[in-house]
Amino acid sequence: MVARVDTALREELGVVDGLADPNVYVLDPAAGTGSYLVEVLRHIAARLRENGDDGLLGYNLKQAALRRVVGFEILPAPFVVSHLQLGLLLQNEGAPLKDDDSERAAMYLTNSLTGWQIPEKTQLRLLFPELQQERDAAERVKREAPILVVIGNPPYNGFAGVAVTEERQLSAAYRTTEQAPTPQGQGLNDLYVRFFRMAERRIVEQTGRGVICYISNYSWLDGLSFTGMRERYLKVFDQITVDCLNGDKYRTGKLTPSGAPDPSVFSTEFNPEGIQVGTAITTLVRKEQHAPATAVRFRNKWGSGKRAELAAEARDGAEFEYQDLHPPLELGLPFQPSHVQAGYLSWPPLPRLFPASFPGVKTSRDDVVVGVDREALISRMEKYFDPAVMDADVATTAPSAMRSTARFDAHSTRQYLTARGFLPGNTVRYVYRPYDLRWLYWEPETKLLDEKRSEYVSHVSPTNPWLELRQKQPMDKFDRGYTVRALADNFGNGLSSFFPLYLRTAPSGDRSLLSVSADEWAENISEAGRNYLVLIGAEAPQLFYHAVSVLRSPCYRRENSTALRQDWPRVPLPLNLDLLAGSADLGRHVAALFDPEEPVLGVDGTPIRAELRPIAVVARQGGGALDPDAGDLAVTARWGHAGQGGTVMPGSGRAVRREYTAEERHAVDVGALALGLTPELVFAQLGDVTYDIYLNDNAYWRNVPEAVWKHTIDGYQVMKKWLSYREQPLLGRPLRADEAQYVGAVARRIAAILLLEPALDANYQSVKENIFTWSAAGEPVPTA
Question: Burial letters for 491-510: b for 16+ Cβ neighbours within 10 Å, e otherwise?
């Protein structure tokens, strides 16, 4: 980073000696133990040696450390260490600081985010004169020093909270836009954003030219919260350069595109993974004769060796190869490469077709109101509602029922509910996770059920399908588009959005959650969507299931991966009824495979399709019979364990990777012929190897193809997630025979979806070639 700044000063701003120029003031506003300051001084010393200033090197270096290489730190311990490091550097260069305290490095104990402006009111004097002097000295630098460079690693804290007073003003400039989409979410509250704005304000609005070089959380590069920040930078900086260092746990799973390890650049021998969030080095240049940036210079760095590569580049002065990005306005001006199919941005976003959506239920007390077994849940709730049962006894079986929080008074809530009574009709089917069906006691009053989503519940019916999506996908891989018919939780961190096909027009007044007759329902279709359906003579369910089909196409997901990560999915509309009907038929098939309670011919019951029949068969190690009544199906292979606060944490389990047997390969050959596919294509979809997945030392599911085992929906590895909740200490019992067979049925359903993907891709391609366009007013217009 120091080398980058030096190069930018020399090549972009015309400062011949770069950092060694005595008029270049450098600030690290989050200096910590002084690492960047020390490196800047080393760089200055090297340049002075190159210039032949050996006799005055120590003097000039000390002058730089005393007045123009500045650090701010708010924590006393690293502040002290930084002074020690700076003093040692100067001593090693033959220019030690004087012992009489008349000299000190320009490292100050201060809040970097305040004190830049003269306060309107008189400041309170600090209790200790030394602290008062420190504050005064730091504020003189903030208001008077002609800072030309801001460098460092600002702190990232998404839970820093809403800033107050002067800090609050820092992110205000990024909360509005001129043309870009309005910022969404809470990302601008992250602490590093305030450091970016502080640096931008100092360089752009005060010095008028300069360089900012930060390594930071990389979420601002394409996050929906930061559209105003990116729009502003394109306007006020002449050059924007991004070295994306990746290494993100949430978006990429700390893996490269080829599947190799991709640790954080901050990983060490003692902490191989480093921090969880991905990072990027951003270099922003503002010239005196300013012209807004016309592109973003970008490159990706991946893999375990990227830190060494960066060090070698800095050492050798290597030329960096960047690609020029031209961020599309419609996607919020992302500073990362965009993968968007031509025409995608003209397709209608899903909410323009289906305007109503609802977030999922948030229980916050799963151990109270959620159960795998209906009878056990009812028994638990009857105990909770029994006034003769003491609170302490309730807490033994459902601890969070009697644990108060800021929004939940456990004792008064139970007191009120026991007086009112149990509502047994409110024990309903609940989609806890994809393919993980449970039971929920839906309590309409109090905070026993944290976010009950009454407005969502009123539209739930077995005959009303819902499509789950997010406006922003947190991971690179788009894997949403799951359909449900029952009440559902939020899938993954944050809130899901569930789009129904129908809306109830006359909400039921009782608390039993019973469905109502068909004449009390209306289609959840926008006026523009209805106009499209009228134009081609189609019906609302066809449009809904067409969306399901398109969203499940791997080709659609690949071609539009950047856009899908940024905003609501957009759906291409077929030009005629035949195309829409064919697409909808595929979508209905997908939705049926998503619903484990809806039988699917060839997947459930008899006869099962040849290629699916040998998948995930319950077997005993070494052969022989299993006795579920004797506990043979207990899950004890360490698939999950209880974490803090009762959260279930996934474990490694036991999954044995192997080649297919001859019999398993023959079954694929037979099934491929029946499907009109080649065996090679079937194996390409299912995976070239398979797994045996163990419940315990003896019982296992035989032959779970690799792609089935690793398949994710909404960020979850479906089968592994299901297993993590069924570890015997968590479930409290072994699996039943029907539950073990259910896992096999889920594996077959996932396999069937994977084998449907070639048809889904072909359908998507046909739709793209024969498509309606939408006018600027949001109306469908058929192409010529």
Answer: bbeeebbbbbbbbbeeeeee
CA distance 580 to 546: 6
Tell me the CA distances in angstroms from 527 to 15, 352, 361, 523, 524, one per residue in order: 60, 9, 29, 11, 10
What span, in angstroms and rounded, lies between the C-alpha atoms of 359 and 469? 10
- Report residues of the chain scoring pLDDT below 50: 159, 161-162, 510-512, 514-516
What is residue 202's predicted lDDT score, i.e. its pLDDT?
94
**398: how many CB neighbours lie within 10 A of its CB?**
19
SS3 track for 468-527: EECCCCCCCCCCCCCEECCEEECCCCCCCEEEECEEECCCCCCCCCCCCCHHHEEECCCH
Provide the token pair at 182.
């309005």
Q: What confidence score (pLDDT) does residue 510 get?
A: 47
Q: How far apart are alpha carbons 246 and 56 in whole angstroms?
A: 43
Would you give the DSSP letter of residue 689? S
Give the DSSP letter string of 196-262: HHHHHIIIIIIISSEEEEEEEESGGGT-GGGHHHHHHHHHH-SEEEEEEEE--TTTSTTB-TTS-B-
Nearest to residue 590, comparing CAs of 678, 674, 484, 495?
A: 484
Neighbours of 592 (CB within 10 A): 17
Q: Are 583 and 762 in contact (CB under 8 A)?
A: no
Is this model's pTM higher than 0.90 or not? no
8 A C-beta contact, residue 209 and residue 203: yes
Closest to 423 (Cα-Cα) out of 440, 399, 406, 437: 440
The pLDDT of residue 781 is 74
Give residue 103's identity as a one-letter amino acid code: E
Instruction: For residues 609 and 602, give the distance between their C-alpha atoms in angstroms, rounded to a whole number.
Output: 5
Q: What is the pLDDT of residue 777?
A: 63
Q: Where are the alpha helices (DSSP H) in 552-675?
A: 554-559, 561-566, 577-594, 662-675
Q: How far apart are CA 112 and CA 114, in angstroms?
A: 6
Residue 733 has a pLDDT of: 96
- The structure tokens 């919020």 sit at 332
